[in-house]
Amino acid sequence: MDRKNLALFVAGGVLVALGLAFFVSPRASGSPDGLEKVAIDEGFDDTAEEHDRGEGPLADYAVEGVEDESLSTGLSGIIGVAITFGVGLLLFGTLRAIRGRRGDLPPPSRAPTV
């Protein structure tokens, strides 16, 4: 895959992820997840404690200060996708820079054309 096709593939993936985060995540089930369900069924759900970041700006899949619940959940999804993509980009860029300095990057390959 050449660089142009790779860039289009990554951009398409990011757009799909952003769309799913904004439009689908607000419609996710409000039922307890697997661990919560087991805790309820086994009767130890009342022992759960709030974690340290329970009052953070993105706590409970919502953006603090946004009153509309669907919009808040969608925005938190977009922020999550952006942070995840940014961290991945930073890690891959760092790895590529390290490999480039060591000189062990393979030459760019060209896919055969039909």
Summarize the structure.
By secondary structure, the protein is mainly alpha-helical.
State the end-to-end distance: 14 Å
Q: What's the SSE pattern? A: HHH
Label the overall shape.
elongated
Low-confidence stretches: none
For the sheet with most strands, the description reads: none
- Rg to the nearest angstrom? 21 Å
Question: What percentage of residues falls in helices of 4 or more residues?
Answer: 55-70%
Count of DSSP E strands? 0
What class would the helix/strand composition place it in? mainly alpha
Q: What percentage of the residues does DSSP assign to strands (E)? A: under 5%
- Return the average pLDDT rounded to an integer: 87
How many distinct helices?
3
